[in-house]
Structures are given as C-alpha cells and as structure tokens.
Amino acid sequence: MELETLMMKLKKHAPKILGSDKFSKYAVLLPLIQKEDGIHVLFEVRSIELRRQPGEICFPGGKIDSQDSTEKDAAIRETVEELGIIEENIKGVFPLDFMLSPFGMIIYPFVGFINKPETIQPNPSEVGDIFTVPLSFFMNTNPEIYQINFKVAPEGNFPFNLIPGGENYNWRARGLDEYFYQYGEKVIWGLTAKILCHLIEILR
C-alpha cells in the first residue's frame, strides 16, 4: 500500500468505541412530571408477562430500531408506546451520559418532562403498573452501592501457551457497582438506579 493511500484512509476514519458495531443499542427516557408537591420521577413496573426482567422497575425505553433517526427519537418513541401518550406531551428532552454495559449493550439515557400526566394509559403488554417518587427523595438520599465481581473463565481450548505465564497468567479482576434505592416497598436498582444517580449528580 502506498503511503498516500494509507494516509487518506486514516484521514477518512471517524473514531468510535472499538467493537461498538457489535453492541446492541438501547435508548431510555427518565420521565419527570410536575405534581402539587413538586417534581416527581415516573417509573414503570414491567409486565409479569414479559420474558426479560418481568416485574422489575424501569424507565420507558427499548432497542433502537432502523426507523429511529437518532437515539433521542428512539427514547421518545418507546415512551409514547409504553405510556400511551402523544409525542407532543413530551417536552424538554435532554441527553445524559451514555453507558457501556459489560453485557454488550450501549444505553443512551435521556431525561424529559411529561405534560398532562393524567392522559397516561400504560400499554398492558409491556407495563404492569406505574408510580412516581418525589425528586426530592433522591436529592436527599444516596443510593446503596454493592459490587459484583466477575470471574475470568477461559474456554477449554484457550491457547495458554501463547501468553506470558500460561495458565498462571494474572488476569485483571473486574467488578461492577450495582446501585439500589429503596422507597417504601419499591426497590429501584441496576441500570435504572445508575441512570437516576447520574441525573442527581448533575442536579446537585
């Protein structure tokens, strides 16, 4: 390859997260609503009929489809579908930091305001229930954080002879912080709690 050709190819390359083309991409919306006692965060309880994570607490969201022009469009579309509202009632949508999951996912979170919350009609095939928690609760309550440790387990045919140390190679330990908020009998945890904590850090 000629040097000029090599330089041209490098010049045209737009950097991204290495391997991200193989990641599943999701978008979620952290919904805020105005109540008489202040701003509340709205949560969904996933339908018990769902195959993945039935009964868990989450925000509206889902996989980004080819029909979605942007990650923001996907978050709004999913919110419309799950809460049974019209798009015009979703205002002030702002991006939060996107997240890389160790399970091969990129999550694009957004925060937005739901006008006319009395018009919400949750889609029963996806949403079992909805509830709200005052934003002030999260502003005044730090999450409980626990760590999950992952064990490195190479496949049986792993070529230990090709790496320094062989079977005694000193693998780097990996951990994952899991966040928990408890509000009465409601337990908000996992990615939902982590996204929520990120918003609170911004607001503080």
3D structure, described in words:
The protein is α+β, with helices and mostly antiparallel strands. The protein has helices at 3-12, 71-83, 135-139, 190-203; strands spanning 24-35, 38-46, 57-58, 61-63, 90-95, 99-101, 105-114, 127-134, 144-150, 174-183, 186-189. β10 (174-183) and β11 form a beta hairpin. The model has no long low-confidence stretch (mean pLDDT 93). This is 8-oxo-dGTP pyrophosphatase MutT (NUDIX family). It comes from Neobacillus ginsengisoli. Its cofactor is Mg(2+); Mn(2+). Residues 23-154 form the Nudix hydrolase domain.
Keywords:
magnesium, three-stranded antiparallel β-sheet, 21% helix, 4 helices, 204 residues, 36% strand, eight-stranded mixed β-sheet, alpha+beta
Percent strand equals 35-45%
Radius of gyration: 21 Å
Report the end-to-end length measured between terminal Cα atoms. 54 Å
Query: Mean pLDDT across all residues, rounded?
Result: 93
Quickly give the structural class.
Answer: alpha+beta
Q: What is the element string, with H for helices and E for strands?
A: HEEEEHEEEEHEEEH
**Number of DSSP strand runs:** 11
Number of helices: 4
Low-confidence stretches: none
Shape: globular
What profile does the largest beta sheet have?
Answer: 8 strands, mixed
Helix content: 10-25%
InterPro entries: CoAse (IPR045121), NUDIX_hydrolase-like_dom_sf (IPR015797), NUDIX_hydrolase_dom (IPR000086)
Cofactor: Mg(2+); Mn(2+)
Protein name: 8-oxo-dGTP pyrophosphatase MutT (NUDIX family)
Keywords: Hydrolase, Magnesium, Manganese, Metal-binding
